[in-house]
Structures are given as structure tokens and as C-alpha cells.
User: Fold this.
Amino acid sequence: MSRDKSGILDWFSRRLNLTEIFSLLTSYGLFYAELDTRKPLREALDEALERPVVSYGRWPRVLGLIVVVLIALEILTGALLSLYFLPTPQTAHASLGTILRDVDFGWFVHQIHFWGAQLLIAVLIVRIVRFFIQGVYRKPRELVWVFAALLLLVCFHLDMTGRVLPLTETAFWSSVRALEVVNAVPVYGSFMFFLAGGGEMFVSDLTLLRFYILHAAILPVLAVTLIYLHFSTIRRIGLTEASGDRKRVGRAALRNHLVNLAIILTLLFALLVTLAVLTPLPFQREADPYATVPGVGPPWYLLAPFGFLEITAGIVPQWLAGLLLFVVFSAFLALPFLERSREDRGRRWAVPVIAGLVVLAWFLLTIYGARVA
Amino acid sequence: MPEESVDKQLEEISPRRRKLLKWLTGGFLSLWGLGFAWVVAAFVKPPRSPRSLAERVLKIGPVDSLSVGQAQLVRHGREPIFVIRTDEETLVGLAGVCSHLHCVLNWDDEQQVLDCPCHEGAFDVNGNVLKGPPPRPLKRFRVETRLGQIYVHL
Assistant:
């Protein structure tokens, strides 16, 4: 393919380091090969395409791509919703009413934002489980795990802070339940409580604005940074290779990959539209802080710690139960480093067995938590 | 690990078929992009009518308070409206903002015109431009009297 040297790309590349910019984009899942940023874009790309790449627009690596796509979708729909949403206790519920009733496609954007978030968390959980099963936390992939785990935790917080914003009955009481769990965990709990500015009910007038700022500004920046770091480590170390993988070589590899991306986008969008239309999040009336609504539990991903706190309520003091939760979450984050120290003593089985038990317990507690709530 | 050259794979596809596939993919993605852009644009556009009828109709006051040849400036949010009584029967609702540079107009009792204080533009009682720089006539609002009260439909 010979192209005119005076093309628009060349005009820009004489004035900007396009390779560096493109290389930055590759950290968000577009194309993962490392580029030589000192060379012009076309040359660097040619060079990168000569190297064989594992096609990663396919199972199971596709999960990472889906995460990026979903976060991009959340940012877009979130930016749209923020054009109408008024984050004060007096106006929040009514402004969501405006979005749902009066704004064209308002219900659609809102439902996509909600279901996209649920799907994002589900995909992140499936992804971390896959990392665990396939050992994508052992040397040299410790940071892959840590960033993925942090991203999951940040997305939990994104969902929790976003959930309360409309101030509907379920939103409000579900957030109170969630903050009960958060509050039980030592150090972290008191920090979040301090940040939320909550009073007796956990959710005060200040909480809404603070959660809004966390949800719309601080946490998204954190999430995007974590994705960058996460993909950067993968780019540096390389993807894991399973025996059935085929490597792809040649100029068309990128195009092939982009076609895969388009297919994923289409399927994902179809799924989201189906969920948004068939199982929409109902628009309930505004929450009354003086009338507890029975039967409202925490968000689905917090059901397990909620159930755990309920089970242990009569048996051990709450601080002990909270401390245990703290230990579990810390171990979850520090998993790669835990195993390495065990390995030396020749007990490789310990971490998988303990972690497997924790996952099983988590699953059972989720069922219990759902029944209690 | 087996390696496969994607380029070789592509060569096996006939040029006609490749062209068709390219066209189909492009067409699909463009349609999708258009739909996407449409949803975003429709969402960003502020909703045209306020929610309820009560919010769409503005009560001004009794008809008797406005004698023939007089006008009243109605303050409504950021959108001033002039209600002019041209004769016994007729009430006219006009935007109170000049179509030139958004200066608020003044009612001239003697000449029966709306004057713009900024660039000497003027409008007649039907909102047509009489002189000056305004490029468009004034936006009109439907005015109604019910039980002796004046209502403006926004």
C-alpha cells in the first residue's frame, strides 16, 4: 500500500508525536503491542505488525476489552445524565423524573447507565475469577492482579455512590444497608464514613453532593488510571498464552482485531438494550428518611458481607467480624505476594484451597444475605 | 504455538467478496454511529414543553388591569414576555427580547411600538421589524382570556 507522503497523517506527524499518542491509546485495549515511540507512526506500526500477536478479541481475553468498552459507555451516558441531574436532596429525585419523563431517550440513557454498571461489575468479577483459576497473579503478573482487584473495588464504589443519587426508596435504603457493611470494617469504614459526612442515618444532606462528586469526578478518574496501569503491565509482560491459542501475523491482524471489537460492541449493546427494555430499573417515589422500607438489602455484590455480619451478629462482636472482612479484602488485594512467601516453604496448595473456600463461603453467604434482606 | 498469517487468509477471499464485506461492515457501522449520534443529540436537546399543563400556561392577571394601548412586561424565568392590549378584544403576546442582540425591549405608549434600547431597533404590535438591525420578527405567544383573566401559553 503506497500512500501520498503529503497526506493528513504526515502533516500531523511532522507536528505531533502521533506514535506516542497512539501508544497511549493502545493501553486502553485497542492494540496491545508495544510501539517504538521514537519512530513515525506508520513505521512503528509496520514494525509492530511484523511481530506475531495473540488475538485477544476472543474468549477469555475478551473480558478485558468488554471492561474498557463498558467503562467508556458509562462515562458517555454518565456525562449525558449529568446534563440534567441536580445533586441536591431537594432536586435530585425530581431531576431524575425530568430525565425519565421529559427528555428524549432519557429513560434509555438512564437504563443503559444502570445496566452497564451491573454488567461491568459482573464482568470484572468473572475476570478476576479467571485470573485466579488460571494463575494470572504469579510472577511476573503480580501487578496485573493488583490493578484488576483495585479496579473491581473502585467499580464497587462507583456503583455504591451512584446508586444513592436518585434518592428513590430502594436507592436510599439500599445505600444505608451498604454503608452499614462499610461502617463495620475498621479503619476503612471510619474513613468512608468521614468522607460521606453522614449523620445518624449514614446518608445526610451532605452525603448526596459528596457521593456525586466521588461518582462523577474522582472515582472515574481513578478507574481510568487503573485501566491504564493494568493494560500497561500487560503490554510490558505480554498476554498469557494458552496452548490452543493461535498467533496472528501481518498487516491485517489489526484490522481483524478491530472487526472483533465491532462484533463485541454490537453484541454487548444488544444485551444492554435487551436488559434496559425488558427489566428496567423502576422509578420509585422519593425516599422518606423517617419511614424504613422493609425488605431492601444492600447491592447484590455486597450481599455476602451483609449476610456474614447478620450471621455473626449474635456470636462475635461486630468489630471482630469487621476485622475479618478487612483481612479477607486485604488478602484478596495482596494475593500474589501471599503465595510467593508460601511457595518457599513448599506449600503451594495452601492459597488455592483457602481462596477456594473463601469463594465458596462468599457464594453461600450471598444466598443467605439475599434471604435475610 | 501455531502462527497464522492473516494476510494469507485474506488473499484467499475473492476481491469482489472482500469489497462487499467491506461495504457491509462500513454501512452497518455508519448506520449504528448515526443512530448513536441521534440518541445523544436528542437527549442533549432540552425538552420542549414543561411537564404539566399548569407549567405551560402562565397566569398574568385580570384583563381590566390592562387598558387598550397598554402593554405589560411579564417576568417569567429568564424569558420576559410582553402582553399588549391592541383593542378591546385583542391581546398580543410577544417575546420581550430583541431578536438582534437580546436586549430587553421597552413599550412606547405614544407610538405603539416596542423600542430596543441598544441599537434603535423597533417592532410593531405584531412583532414585525419596523427599523434597525433586528434580523427576525419577535416570537409570538398565544394569549387567552378566561373568566376575565389573561393567560399566556408558553
